C-alpha cells in the first residue's frame, strides 16, 4: 500500500545499500502499520550532483518521502517516522543531520492496489482475508 | 491542474504505451473532474532495475501517483481512482496486482497554474471563463 | 524542512538556472515560513522528452511540487505559492502558462530532520534554540 521514495545524489548509496534500505523500510512499515511486505514499495531517485540543493547550494541529503493511508493512530505514525529515520542512518551511514523523512497521507479510498480499494487503517485483516477468498487481485 | 506521476523500471513501458497512457489519464481526469485536458500533466519516471523494490526485493510495479484539489465529492474521487486503475492495466497490459494508484490532495488555493490560483472544485467554469476574459494565462 | 521538487524535460533549465532557482526558492521559503535556509531542500527531475505530457501530448511544463508542514496561516500559504510561482517565471523565463506550482502538506510530527521531529508552524524558534542547546542534530 505505501510507497517510499528515497532521493539522493547519484552514487551516494551502493546497489547493496539501496537493497538493504528497501528491506529495512519494508520490515519497519510492515510491522508498525500491519501491512504485508508484499504491499510495501520502495523506489530510489538517483539524481545528478547539480540537481540537488540544500540552503541553495549543491548538497548530498537523503530525502525519504513516504505515503500512508490517513487514519493510523497518532502514536503509530510517530513511531513509524522515528523508526524510518533511525533506519536511514543505521543502514546508510549518512548522519542524521543530512536525513529528512516526510510522511504524507491521503484517505485509503483514494488508493487502489491489486484492483481493490485499500482498507481503512485497522481493517487490513478483513481486507486481506476477503482478497484470498475472492481469488486475489482480480477482485 | 493535476499531475499524474507514473513510476516504473526502465523499458517497462514503450514510448508508444507511455503516450497512450498519458492520453487515457488525461481523458479520464478531464471527464470526471471537469478540467480541460490542457490542464492535465502526466510524467513518467523510468528507473534502473535496482532502484525499485516491492517486499524488499527488486520488482516491476506500475506506481501511479496523482495530485488533485481537495473538495471533490467523494463519489467522484472514488470513480476517478477506479477508472485510472482500470486504464493502467488496460493500456499497459500490466496485471492489476502490480498496479498501485494513489491520489493525494491539497487545497486548490495551494496551487497556481498559468499565473492564477486554482479554483475550488465546482468553480472551474467561472475560473476558465474569467481567464479568457482577462486575456488568459498572463492574469 | 520543506522539499521542493522541480520537474522538467531534460535541457529545459541550464545548470546555472537550476542553481538560481534553487537559491530563489530557498530565499522565499526561508523568509515567508520562518525556516533557516539550511532546512530548505530543492531537487530537480530532468526527464526525457517523451516522459512529459500535457493534454496527452509531449510538452515542456515546469512543474514545482512543494511539501510544507500543516498549519501555517492561510495568508502565509497564499503568499508562499504566489511568490514561488512568480520566481519560477522570473528566474527561468518560462511563461506562466507553462508553470504549475502545487504545495502539499502533512502534519509537522510526520516529519523528522536532523534526528528531531519537526516543530509545528510558529514553534520554529524554540525548536532551533533547543537544537543548539542540545548539541545539535544528534538530539
TrEMBL record, chains A, B, C:
Q: Which residues form the Tautomerase cis-CaaD-like domain?
A: 1-129
Protein name from the UniProt record: Uncharacterized protein, 4-oxalocrotonate tautomerase
**Native source organism of the sequence:** Mycolicibacterium rhodesiae (strain NBB3) (Mycobacterium rhodesiae)
